[in-house]
Write a structure and sequence with these properties.
homodimer; alpha/beta; Aldehyde Dehydrogenase, Chain A, domain 1; 2 domains; 7-stranded parallel sheet; 4-stranded parallel sheet; 15 helices; 16 strands
């Protein structure tokens, strides 16, 4: 189908989807979850084509594993959809209600976005997740997945569309852009007349391309240069445990720690301790002069290292003279995702909470908690690193809009 | 000053402005209001240069009037700033607060945007208004006004900066881009590393240029192709009064009515009535075949007429067979600003409220009420016609962001 026809189909479907009630949406989601399981064989066959292509193209083992679907992973996908069905409906909630002196009643209610576009990279489970969240939020969705997973995505979308039809709902609520060339992706980003919101999910390169080319409003997600600052007053054992967790529990995720900032007065005592613990995972330290003097094993950090999201067993290290310098340093180098202070000093904790300009600012906890489930929102569509509309984990309540309903009895403006 | 230096100055000022408390902000705003009055003579002299240039360039009378500053208008500007000082502080408000099973306390609070950019056209009072709103919302502001008002804007900004300095606050909280060439404006839209939000205020051409060129998140404002649908069951006298008000009370504003949609079963009775009333202002009707048959004076509407924001004594007219067709027609042609139904039928009222995809949907009232003051928000920075972040009138509470503060005692993720 032509891109523009596909966008028009989504736009015309959005009114039907917006009109579904909670019961209808949940029943359809549960039906679709089962449909995916019923169609596992077909989906896995399609996935095998992608895997074969991946092997032929020399895709490395980690990526092949992300791409692979098994009956268990399809069950996991279905369970994810059922969990979305269990979440509260975010639509039609009255946010405020007032009566003006002239008698006009002004009610503000949540409404669907309309059509949400999502551009993402390889993992095919995003296809089902993103559909479920957008559908429950009353919106149609247009998906543009990675080339590597195209056969898997087509099979998943086919099952979802079948599930919609059999639920008596238009299948046009989900659209998959099957063309995988760059030109189509670029054209998609210009479909402002049909798409209300565009969310890129993937690496920094993808996000940059979307921000630079899209005329559709964008929410940037998921680049995390997360810092942990260890204050003079820190409980150092706690600091070591938190840093070990934030840096090494899962290195490839956006809420993993990338940079350590440490108060100079404890650096000589603390850095060897944390270095020793992280040596268990062979973490490479890249520090400033002061930390390199203390840790002979550390490499000298470049300016770029301090801006980097390594997603690897690498940590940049910077010493500072106080919490104020730590805050300024972090605000200069972070990506607005998640940053933490480890401190027993109440005043410094509050300074840090107020001063650091990030979606999530932590005291004495790991940055790894920035996640929809950990926050109690349920599944998330991404973690926003911008300040417009939504910040931090975006669950159902963050992918809706609102409108004003104004009821009068003949009021005119004087 | 170089554009990039100016953006850097705003970015470094944002931390100081974010740290001001309500009392400090209000005191500075009141001081600045007085400063503008004290400097009236200087501001009016600068304004005279703009007016002379306007006359020399053949600017027409309406625009010259919008550009002109008088002692009364400067008093009005100062009063606008004082009114912003009187509004509640939108910063530091706890939006939610929860404790997770693992003991993490997650608090969501409002925070400033940071740096807000505003690109606007001729009226110089926007300069003072926009500063006051952004400052009260804890943000630094970068203003790019129209070439025609550059001398007036420079004089106003000079007074505001002086007022800030004398209040002990960094004058870098307000920046005026003095270069008026297109290249500078285009470069400004790329200053994503320094500017958190960009709001264009002006005509459709300006807004389109910003949406197409900006890499900074944008809120679109102020294009209004507002519809009024007159239902079969309407109180026709009420409908005539509301339409007369919405169409003619002020033609050049975004919440003025541009298009009439009428139920075919009452068209023959209703159209002559409304035509007669609007003839008092010589409003030109451009209709479909059916309405032209009824109104011999009407012109035939083109497809473009139905998409047009006339801002003139012109009205497009369309007959429909029921409320469903009215809703579909409006959703296809409107700009998502404000639309109204005139109807005594409760079911049709609700269908219209739910079905029309606009920021403000009215029952039995004039679209002219879409306005920050009329909604009880106080001064507004614009009326958003997009669904991301803010929709409809944007007051202080719509130009802030939020962040999560997470307090723990050593939590790590399993």
């Amino acid at each position: 189908m032509e891109l523009i026809e596909l966008c028009k189909s989504a736009k015309s479907a959005k009114y039907e989807i917006a009109g579904l009630n909670e019961r209808e949406k949940n029943a359809a989601l549960r039906y679709i979850a089962q449909k995916l399981i019923d169609n596992s064989k077909e989906i896995i066959e399609a996935n095998n084509v992608d895997l074969d292509n991946g092997v032929a193209n020399g895709m490395h083992q980690g990526l092949l594993d992300r791409l692979r679907l098994t009956p268990e992973r399809i069950e996991g996908m279905a369970e994810g959809i059922r969990q979305v069905a269990d979440l509260d409906d975010p639509i039609g909630i009255t946010l405020s209600d007032s009566k003006r002196p002239n008698g006009l009643e002004i009610e503000k209610i949540t409404v669907p976005m309309g059509v949400i576009g999502i551009i993402y990279e390889s993992r095919p489970n995003v296809t089902a997740d993103a559909f479920a969240l957008c559908f429950k939020a009353g919106s149609a969705v247009i998906l543009k997945g990675g080339k590597d997973a195209i056969n898997s995505n087509m099979a998943i979308v086919k099952s979802i569309r079948l599930g919609l039809i059999e639920s008596g709902i238009t299948p046009e609520a989900i659209q998959l852009i099957e063309a995988t060339d760059r030109e189509t992706t670029k054209n998609f980003m210009q479909m402002k007349d049909y798409v209300d919101l565009l969310i890129p999910r993937g690496g920094a390169g993808l996000i940059k391309a979307v921000v630079e080319n899209s005329t559709i409003p964008v929410i940037e997600t998921g680049t995390g240069n997360c810092h942990i600052y260890v204050d003079e007053s820190a409980d150092q054992d706690m600091a070591v445990d938190i840093i070990y967790n934030a840096k090494t529990q899962r290195i490839g995720v956006c809420n993993a720690m990338e940079s350590l900032v440490v108060h100079e007065s404890i650096a000589r005592e603390f850095l060897p301790k944390v270095y020793k613990k992280l040596a268990e995972k062979e973490v490479e330290f890249r520090g400033d002069d002061e930390s390199c003097n203390i840790l002979p094993e550390a490499l000298h950090a470049t300016e770029d290292d301090y801006y980097a999201e390594f997603l690897d067993y690498i940590l940049s290290v910077k010493t500072v003279k106080d919490v104020g310098e730590a805050i300024a340093w972090i605000n200069e180098h972070n990506t607005g995702h998640s940053d933490a202070i480890i401190s027993e000093n109440r005043e410094n904790q509050e300074k840090f909470l107020q001063g650091v300009d990030s979606a999530c600012v932590y005291v004495n906890a790991s940055t790894r908690f920035t996640d929809g489930f950990e926050f109690g929102f349920g599944a998330e569509i991404g973690i926003s690193t911008q300040k417009l509309h939504a910040r931090g984990p975006m669950g159902l309540n963050q992918i809706v809009s609102y409108k004003y309903l104004i009821r009068g009895n003949g009021q005119i403006r004087e």
